[in-house]
Task: structure prediction
Amino acid sequence: MSYVGETLSNLLHQTAFFSLSWGNYVMILVAFVFLFLAIKKGFEPLLLVPIAFGMLLVNIYPDIIASPEETSNGVGGLLHYFYLMDEWSILPSLIFMGVGAMTDFGPLIANPISFLLGAAAQFGIFGAYFMAILLGFNDKAAAAVSIIGGADGPTSIFLAGKLGQTGLMGPIAVAAYSYMALVPIIQPPIMKLFTTKEERAIKMQNLRPVSKLEKILFPIVVTAVVCIILPTTAPLVGMLMLGNLFRESGVVRQLTETASNAMMYIVVILLGTSVGATTSAEAFLNLTTLKIVALGLAAFMFGTAAGVLFGKILCKVTGGKINPLIGSAGVSAVPMAARVSQKVGAEEDPTNFLLMHAMGPNVAGVIGTAVAAGVFMAIFGI
Result:
């Protein structure tokens, strides 16, 4: 009987109930909320489902992301090896290749003024940088946190790794991806606050047709220009444009399909679960994380407002030819931010179709956020 009792006791103590803290239960609850938002509400499920599940796993079984030095047998946890690919900038760069292969840059080429709207939305990043300094972050940590304002998860991970802020990478990545998923909730009130009903109802002229030659030359020229000026952006901008060249060249259909489908989804699984696994209660429930989440929200809101306000300026300059709503798409959440511009515009006039017009600033925002990351790396001599 003593043997049976001892065996049952050992089995009981191997369960997670005896090792979970109140913080673990809080993070498990957060994981459930994220899963609800992803599955029930449809908020970026491709991102939130793996992130939430990684969050759930690490708060039940912390060793799933343990490094080899932290284990008794010298073998790291499964998600530790996924996470190394985040730190080495492999997964963020591959995500950019997939985005490039999936995205039509035609609206940006047809309306180059979209570059200005994409650039305006990056003001949120630099505004958050100075706010982070005021809140006590050092300069590199402030830069890593502020890039959340671009609503670009891969760039946030990339910059945190390059600036040596791996300790903040988890909260930064979770905040960035969370705000990407919550674009339909966060952006509309800001867009409506800074625009009038008349401005939201503006119909824009159809975009001009873009030739195949223009679409082929665009990724080549952008890569050459941006990477010569800011060579450190090559892993992101280069992969983004390579993926787009696959798409537009028309001669590597298999590579386009692989980059935009199989590879993209594999990378999302690896990146999402590993990012979620950085949110253990010990690492996530602290004042620094709360500051990061608050700064990220402030940066994202300010970037949205800056894009809309610059859109209002262009509306005046062009005599009412630009709908200011498309300025909000200057953040990098592709294509969610463009869809939100369409939705808010359609609320005023169901016959108003802004989606393709908004895709121009949206794509420009992806490039702009990568450039902003390159600027920070150049400033710090990385």
